[in-house]
Specification:
The complex is a heterodimer. Chain A is an alpha/beta fold. Chain A is about 30% helix and about 20% strand. Chain A contains 11 helices and 13 strands. In chain A, helix 9 links the parallel strand 12 and strand 13. Chain B is α/β, with parallel strands linked by helices. In chain B, a hairpin with a 2-residue loop joins strand 2 and strand 3. In chain B, helix 1 crosses helix 2, helix 1 packs parallel to helix 11 and helix 5 packs parallel to helix 6. At the A-B interface, helix 3, helix 4 and helix 5 of A face strand 2, helix 5 and helix 6 of B.
């Protein structure tokens, strides 16, 4: 954020509780208001209004970064996102609206039903809206910087809560990491637990699940199961061509996301991939999401119903042995 | 400074334009929907004429043709847009309710442009040009929550936001007494915002009051709310006027155009009416196929 604010004098941040010394509910803006006091604005609790303010600022030459404290609150921003910010560049000639909405997604911290969701699927397929979700294999700061530099329309930037304390992962001898560049310039992290041959299965997902990928891959490597994991940074529009290419290496695919089951990112991506992989796949595409329930606060219940490593592993094994 | 004659001319051409649209509907030429500002021209012209198209920004609503034309928008481009022509203001995508050119924006979600206009006001404060951000809503839209959120922020952050409420006492088919529990001015006043309520059909007075408000806002960045009492002479859109004949008659008595005519000479009126009629007739001839 410091880099962005230094490089772009027209960047602003609006949000609740973003000032120092608190520095934001997840500390993302710590230090920023001290260094750029005129450009970090603490707002009343008015998600709809601050999103609209962001849209107005974006129309008039600023790059507003609006922090929505929990993505569960995006429902309050919906009209401004869908009927204003996204529409302006589409309805009006020669118009930019580079509004960036940053927000934490995901469960696993026991915050309960209205502070743990991954509601981004509500905003998928909205014309003019782009959705990004960095993982542990991406550099979120660099990604955000890229957004600020190139995007002319609104962007939803999803930060999984459990990744705030994680480190960015790099190549190791057992986990091969390469980053492919999609057409739009955003990265697809490709992680493999093998060096030679074709993978047995391709796992596709984004955001929070990435923190379990390395340990999962190591466990499966021990059983000589070769997995290629494809983790796009830009999830809407998804880099279908790259995902199809990686999926056809394995011919067996598992797609996961942490949203509650029912008309998800994974089912949407699967439908797009089926078109291109018909006749190539050796098994139906397996989808894993969280249960279609309110996310409970109790740890055992919460971790049991959310997308988790156990469910992903079971899905991988099921897909590999499907005949 | 504009004279009553200038203001009258602007109102009259808006009147003819809006009436022509409703005729085009009846002839089956116009597709979709329009929300004409018949009877409310005094508000549009009175307020918008006091704004500077270079420095100030106007955000309008579904009933925005009057604001568009009063702010200097091109009538030909507007008609083309409403007719769905790709050479219209927004290439036929926006249509009547979604217009943008230079410093004019309109959208079709009631109250939705208020926070956007507040963001614009913040941009203007940061740009330090003395520019003002004006946004227009109706009395019906004043029930939308996002307006309260925005007014609170505008007052807190001292932003040059001018909220204009065109109070025509009806929201589509719902009379005001079924929409509001309290007089509208109570709300901005409660938030510490300077609020003026007046007759919106006296175009010269509206112009003078707005001029004062704007000069004040350019000096002391503060939001302001201007509530204009007016009357909708036409239907909400087309064929959806549920008011009684009595109500409509008393509305006609308040016609801002008739009122302004009282201060203008007969000769001048004839000349203005002729010019405006010609302008609209030429346009219709050019753009509407027989």
């Amino acid at each position: 954020m410091n880099t962005i604010f230094t490089e772009h004098p027209n960047a602003l941040l609006l949000g609740e509780d973003v000032l120092d010394p608190y520095g934001g509910a997840f500390k993302v803006t710590a230090g920023l208001s001290t260094k750029f006091p005129d450009r970090v604005l603490t707002t009343p609790i008015s998600e709809a209004a601050i999103t609209g303010l962001g849209a107005g600022l974006a129309l008039r030459g600023y790059i507003p970064i609006v922090e929505i404290m929990f993505s569960d609150f995006l429902t309050l921003c919906a009209d401004q996102i869908v009927n204003h910010a996204s529409k302006f560049p589409l309805m009006y000639p020669n118009t930019h609206c580079p509004l960036i909405l940053r927000t934490p997604i995901g469960g696993g911290r026991g915050y309960g039903p209205t502070h743990s969701q991954s509601l981004e699927k509500m905003f998928m397929g909205i014309p003019g809206l782009k959705i990004l979700a960095p993982s542990v294999f991406h550099n979120p700061g660099e990604t955000l910087r890229k957004v600020v530099i190139k995007e002319k329309g609104p962007v939803l930037f999803l930060e999984h809560k459990l990744l705030y304390s994680e480190k960015i992962q790099v190549n190791t001898s057992n986990i091969q990491l390469e980053t492919l560049s999609a057409q739009d310039g955003y990265g697809v992290a490709v992680v493999r637990n093998y060096h030679q041959g074709n993978p047995d299965v391709c796992l596709i997902g984004y955001g929070g699940f990435s923190r379990d990928v390395s340990s999962l891959l190591l466990e499966l490597a021990a059983e000589e199961i070769r997995v290629v994991v494809a983790i796009p940074e830009c999830i809407d529009p998804p880099p279908i061509e790259i995902l199809v290419r990686l999926a056809s290496e394995a011919k067996r695919v598992v797609i996961v996301d942490e949203a509650n089951e029912g008309f998800n990112w994974s089912t949407g991506v699967a439908a797009l991939m089926y078109e291109k992989l018909w006749g190539v796949l050796e098994a139906p595409i397996k989808i894993v999401s969280s249960e279609r329930e309110a996310i409970p606060t109790s740890q055992a219940l919460e971790l049991g119903m959310l997308l988790n490593k156990t469910k992903i592993e079971a899905a991988l094994l099921e897909t590999i042995s499907w005949a | 400074m504009q004279s009553i004659t200038d203001l009258y001319r602007n109102m009259y051409r808006i009147r003819l334009f809006e009436e022509a649209l409703l005729d085009l509907f009846s002839l089956g030429v116009l597709r979709g929907t329009v929300h004409t500002c018949l009877g409310q021209e005094g508000c549009a012209v009175g307020v918008i004429s006091a704004l500077d198209p270079v420095r100030d920004v106007v955000s309008s609503n579904h009933r925005g043709h009057g604001h568009f034309l009063a702010f200097g928008g091109d009538m030909r481009a507007l008609l083309k847009e409403i007719l769905g022509d790709v050479n219209g203001v927004c290439h036929g995508v926006g249509g009547s309710q979604h217009l943008h050119v230079q410093n004019f924006y309109s959208n079709g979600i009631l109250g939705g442009m208020v926070p956007v206009a507040c963001g614009v006001a913040l941009a203007q404060k940061l740009n330090n040009t003395g520019g003002v951000s004006a946004v227009v809503v109706g009395d019906g839209a004043m029930a939308e929550g996002v307006i309260y959120e925005t007014l609170n922020i505008a007052a807190l952050w001292k932003l040059p936001l001018l909220l204009i409420v065109e109070d025509n006492h009806i929201a589509q088919t719902t009379p005001k007494n079924l929409g509001h529990s309290t007089p509208l001015e109570g709300i901005p006043i409660a938030l510490g915002i300077k609020t003026i309520a007046m007759d919106g059909n006296d175009v010269l007075k509206v112009y003078e009051v707005t001029n004062d408000i704007i000069s004040g806002m350019r000096q002391n960045q503060q939001p302001c709310c201007l509530i204009l009492d007016t009357c909708r002479l036409g239907p909400h859109s087309k064929g959806d006027d549920t008011r009684s004949t009595d109500e409509l008659s008393s509305c006609k008595l308040r016609d801002p155009i008739k009122k302004a005519e009282e201060s203008i000479s007969e000769d001048m009126l004839i000349s203005i009416k002729r010019d405006c009629s010609q302008e609209v007739a030429i346009l219709l001839n050019e753009l509407v196929s027989k």
